[in-house]
Write a structure and sequence with these properties.
The complex is a heterodimer of chains A (387) and B (81). With 387 residues, chain A is of the alpha+beta class. Chain B is mostly helical. Chain B has a single domain, classed as ACP-like (Non-ribosomal Peptide Synthetase Peptidyl Carrier Protein, Chain A, Orthogonal Bundle). The chains are: A alpha+beta (387), B mainly alpha (81). At the A-B interface, helix 7 and helix 9 of A face helix 2 of B.
């Protein structure tokens, strides 16, 4: 499937026809299967498990993994469009794809041949669910300094530590875990049937409430040597960093989805509610807020498209462009959600409208995969691709 | 080979502005090398020279200088016996 094509002498920034068609399919599916249930999932603190089966059946878990490896082989802009649509419907569902694909792509890129033989195809097909095992009670942004430790034992490794905030940790089958091995950050793929592994459900937080968060308890958790990803000491700098790079791409697109959802909610609301003898949308200050939402959500989407194009071509500037896209899109989402509540007035703070959920979910996008502040201190040190 | 070193230098120079990087200069000693640059370096080597950086290549010494990166690429491109 082709993606955005640079056409001499100018640059074409329109989606290809097949991408438009894919977008139409994603949008229709989300409108039918996600949007009608998202409020309930948010309230209950859990998505329906049957939805995971449906995502698997559609080959949307593992969609960006190469087809040769058993994945969907979806081009990265189309994958972005899928992520946007899921994010528009329900950020918790979007976050399932985020963490699963981070784990699957990490095994594809950094797994040993033995681990790839064992795990890649099931992950790429979504038959085995993957998730991240990075954050800890005392470790968030400073992720390289995790306190979980690993030690060599016989032919394998034993891990001890405590992980927290694991998205879809209640249902994942394996986790990409970072631990200190002889003082050097090293990555492992830890299956949930490993001896010494246990998990406990966390209370749903304020945002992405339906993402089935869990804490992981690694108490002498034994994994085979083949379950180490990358070399000792390169677990953060290469394995986790590239996983987070993908995660930022996913969160950026998901944030565009939230901004788009806010815009659509506001276009509907301001077209039906009257104040001062006219529709809200006829008030100039309301028009100003709508314009901000329209312009910024489009700008965020274009940044995501560009990041996707560069990722597809393997451009080393893609990491910086992805970071910029995530930074801008997540801030756009929170700004749009704040304005959406303002436009809805007191109604926006009730369960009768989805904009309160959009705000809570948008706040999460400014924290995960590198907070806004981490992006602010990282982007100036990065070198983006040439425009 | 000089062309390859020139490409490596051009890429690295974008990170080390206003500094004429010598071919044997230790980029880690200059600072500013964080995990993101380390990852971008791998992506650059793979994209620019059409090689795959394997686990065994993940050694800081392979990325320490223009000369070191050039040696890594040369080794990857050499026909295997």
């Amino acid at each position: 499937m082709s993606t955005l094509a640079a056409v001499s002498p100018g640059m074409q920034v329109e989606l290809a026809p097949e991408q438009r068609e894919a977008q139409r399919i994603f949008r229709g599916w989300v409108d039918e299967h996600v949007v009608p249930h998202a409020e309930r999932w948010d309230r209950d603190g859990a998505i329906d498990r049957s939805l995971i089966d449906e995502l698997r059946r559609r080959r949307w878990l593992g969609a960006p993994v190469a087809a040769e490896a058993g994945g969907g082989g979806m081009d990265l802009v189309t994958y972005g469009l899928l992520t946007e649509e899921l994010g528009r419907g329900c950020s918790s569902v979007r976050s399932l794809l985020t963490v699963h694909d981070m784990a699957a792509l990490s095994v594809a890129r950094w797994g040993s041949p033995e681990l790839r033989d064992e795990m890649l195809a099931p992950l790429a097909r979504g038959e085995v669910l993957g998730a991240l095992g990075l954050s800890e009670p005392n470790v968030g942004s400073d992720a390289a300094r995790v306190e979980t430790v690993a030690r060599k034992q016989g032919d394998g490794y034993v891990l001890d530590g405590h992980k927290k905030w694991m998205t879809f940790g209640q249902v994942a089958d394996c986790f990409l875990v970072l631990a200190q091995l002889e003082g050097a950050a090293t990555a492992f793929l830890v299956p949930t049937d490993a001896p010494g592994f246990s998990r406990s459900a966390q209370e749903p937080p304020a945002g992405t409430r339906a993402s089935l968060l869990a804490e992981l308890h690694l108490d002498g958790c034994a994994v085979a040597a083949r379950h180490r990803l990358g070399r000792v000491g390169f677990g953060f700098s290469h394995v986790i960093s590239s996983a987070l790079d993908h995660g930022r791409y996913s969160v950026a697109w998901g944030s565009v989805g939230i901004a788009q959802a806010c815009l659509e909610a506001c276009l509907d609301y301001t077209a039906e509610r009257r104040q001062g003898g006219k529709l809200l949308r006829e008030h100039q200050l309301v028009q100003q807020m709508l314009t901000e939402m329209i312009a910024n959500s489009r700008a965020a989407r274009l940044l995501c498209c560009r990041a996707g194009h560069l990722r597809r071509t393997g451009d080393p500037g893609a990491t910086a462009e992805t970071m910029i896209a995530k930074y801008f899109a997540s801030r756009t989402a929170t700004a749009a959600a704040r304005d959406a509540i303002q436009l809805h007035g007191a109604n926006g703070l009730t369960d009768a409208y989805p904009v309160g959920r959009y705000l809570r979910d948008s706040l999460v996008t400014e924290i995960i995969e590198g907070s806004t502040q981490i992006q602010q201190i990282s982007i100036p040190l990065m070198v983006p691709a040439d425009l | 080979m000089d062309d390859r070193k020139q490409k490596i230098k051009l890429f690295l120079s974008r990170f080390f502005r206003n500094h004429d990087l010598a071919h044997d200069e230790d980029i880690f000693a200059l600072g500013f090398v964080n995990s993101l640059l380390a990852m971008q370096l791998v992506q650059f080597v793979e994209k620019e020279f059409g090689v795959t950086v394997e686990d065994d290549d993940l050694d800081l010494d392979n990325f320490r200088s223009i000369d070191a990166i050039d040696r890594l690429v040369e080794g990857k491109l050499a026909p295997t016996p």
